[in-house]
Specification:
This protein is of the alpha+beta class. It has helices at 12-15, 35-43, 45-52, 134-154, and strands at 25-31, 56-58, 65-68, 73-81, 85-92, 101-110, 113-121, 167-168. Helices cover 24% and strands 30% of the residues.
């Protein structure tokens, strides 16, 4: 098969016919607090460290770096829309140099609180040190390192009831 044209006209020129990216991760959690409180938790070093019980340094402006979980995850703030959205260039310390994924946190106000949607794309293919793939590693650990600690931390601020269990894409719990 011969491919002609520019990459813009035919994106397969950049990666070839067989290039397959790992599927994006999409997860959601509900917290019975205002979106602004969840936003502050994701962007304030002290609050994030208190919630996760791990060191965190988080830049509060677009373009600034962040380092969380004692330096295991690092990156840069790409887009910050207070109370609505955070986009980060995000990487694990054990990833190959120069490899960054994109994580988008979307905060949706609901009657009794906030639905936090996480979309994670562009992470490495292949095996992780602890799972058969990086996809499985990351998918399994969003609840462990974000949603569950956030629910415990935010429980003292709840406007109504405890945080709900995460709901994955497709509605499974």
């Amino acid at each position: 098969m011969t491919m002609t044209g520019t990459i813009a006209e035919n994106p397969t020129l950049a990666f070839g016919d067989t290039h397959r990216r790992p599927p994006a991760i999409h997860q959601e959690a509900f917290f019975p607090v205002a979106p602004e409180r969840v936003y502050r938790l994701l962007t304030d070093s002290r609050k994030f460290a208190a919630a996760t019980d791990r060191p965190a340094t988080i830049g509060a402006a677009e373009g600034e770096p962040f380092s969380i979980f004692g330096g295991y995850i690092e990156g840069r703030q790409i887009e910050l829309v207070p109370g609505r959205r955070i986009v980060q260039a995000w990487r694990g310390a054990d990833w190959a140099p120069g490899i960054f994924s994109i994580v988008r946190f979307t905060l949706i106000r609901e009657e009794a609180g906030t639905r936090l949607t996480v979309d994670h794309d562009g992470y490495p293919e292949g095996e992780s040190p602890m799972y058969p793939s990086w996809h499985e590693h990351l998918e399994a650990n969003w609840p462990v390192f974000y949603f569950n600690p956030f629910a415990r931390y935010l429980a003292s601020y709840a406007v109504a009831g405890p945080a709900q269990q995460i709901v994955r894409a497709g509605g499974e719990k």
